[in-house]
Amino acid sequence: MSFTVKLDRLLQHFENLREALATHTMSDPGDFAKLSKEYSDMTDVAEAILSFRNKQKELIELESMMKDPTADADMRDMMQHEIYALKEEIPHLEQTVKLLLLPKDANDERNVILEVRAGTGGEEAGLFAANLLRMYQRYAAINGWKFELLNAADTGIGGVKEASASITGKGVYARLKFESGVHRVQRVPETESSGRVHTSAATVAVLPEAEEVDIHIDEKDLLIDVFRASGAGGQHVNTTDSAVRITHLPTGVVVSQQDERSQHKNKAKAMKILRARLYEAEQSRIDAERSADRKNQVGSGDRSERIRTYNYPQGRVSDHRINLTLYKIAQIMEGEALDEVINALITEDQAVKLSAEDNE
Prior knowledge:
- The structure is a single chain.
- The protein is an alpha+beta fold.
- 46% of the residues lie in helices and 20% in strands.
- The chain is flat.
- The N and C termini lie close together (10 Å).
- Residues 232-237 and 292-296 have low confidence and may be disordered.
C-alpha cells in the first residue's frame, strides 16, 4: 500500500468515527466509549495528515500561479518566497506523520520496576550501583514521577549489592526502556590509596510493571518462605518473621523482600516484582519470535549487553549503541542531562523503525 493511499484510508476512517459519534444513540454506552477512545487516539495523527496535505495543496497552487505570465514581479517574488518556505516545511511535516504512524510500544505508558545490581569490581561496583540508583531517583524527581524504593541490600560503606524501585508517572517506560544493560564506570575508587583508575560495572534492568490481568500466576506454582529480616552485619531489623522469599517454580525466578515490617506488605511488593519479571520474560519471548534479527534495534533489553561507559577522569559518558559521547558526567549523574542521552536513543530508535517501514 502506498503512503498516499494509507493516508487517504486513515483520514476516511477518522471521518467515519466522527460521524459515528455524532449519530450515536447512546443505547450502548460501552460502544460509545470505545469509539470515543479510538477517535481521541487518532486525533493527533489525523490533524498532522491534514496539515501535511494542506501544505502540499498550497505548494501545488502557488507553483501553478507562478506559471501565470500576467503576474507582476513583486507578486512573483512573494510567491517564490512562499514556495521556498513550503518546500522546507513539507518534508518535516511528512516526517512527523510517519513518526506518528509507527507502531506504538504497548508498554510505553506503563510504570516500571527498576532493578540495579553491582557487577564486577568489588566494593567500587557497589558504590557505582548506588550512584546509578541515585541518578534515576533524581531523574524521576525532575520528571515529576514517584520513586519508591522497594528493596535494597547495602554493602555497609554506602554502596548497594542490589536494589529495586517502583517508578510511576506518565510515559515512564517510554523514557527509561533503553537503560537496561551493563553500565561500566572508569574512575579512581575512594577506597584506592594509590590513585589508579579502576573499571567496575553495574547491571540495570527496566521492567514494565504488570497488572494481574497481564499475567496469571497460579498460587500452586509459588514456594513462599518467611524469615527474620536483617540489616547490614546481621543486625536484626525486627524480631518477627516478616521477610518474604517467593520462588516461581516453573521458571525458577526468586524474589526476596524485607524492607517492610509487615509480612503482608513484603509479600505484596515481592509479588509486584515477580509479576514484572515474568511479564518481561514473556514480552522478550514474543519479541524474539517476531524479529529474527534483534541487532537492528537500538536496545534489545539484554542485561548482558554493555551499553554505556562513565569515565570520570575524562568527565565523559559514552553510549556505545549510538556512538554518543557527552562531556557532562556530573550533570548526567545528577539526572539533569540524562535526557540528552535518552532523547538521542529514542531518535535513533525511530530512525531504525522508519527505515524498516520504508523497506517493507
